[in-house]
Specification:
about 160 residues; mainly alpha; 7 helices; about 75% helix
Length: about 160
Amino acid sequence: MTDDPPPKGEFIPKELAQVRALARLLDEAVTVPGTNFRVGLDAALGLIPGVGDVASGLIGGYILLTAARLGVPRVVLTRMLLNVAADSALGVVPLAGDVLDAAWRTNSKNARLLEAHLLDPRGTTRGSWLTVAALGVLLLAIVAGTIAVGVWLAGRLARLLG
């Protein structure tokens, strides 16, 4: 067996089955009684202060490693990593973050991205470029807005003091 990635578009059932099973365990293992809402180990780990989100992120990192090993392009891996980053950011907020974390389902999103890439590499790459670019523009707008507010506040403070 070689370490070369499989040809683009070739379906990889073994690895994909493992990724799907892990995503299901982390995001949708049990149904909340009286609802159709499913939660998994990720949500349960997120309840442990400090280490829970880190632990679930490390476990979910297997999906990213598998995707990289299968030759998924960097932009799709970046999109997957952004999903993990959003999950971690949401998980920081006590209780509300845990609820949002359960709804976000990062691992399921990343498993679907991997599967989509295996079935339609060009379409997934193009969609990932659009998503990453949009998030980049949003991040730049947030940074610019933060700087603008900081400059405005500094000016107001200077007028009050001077």
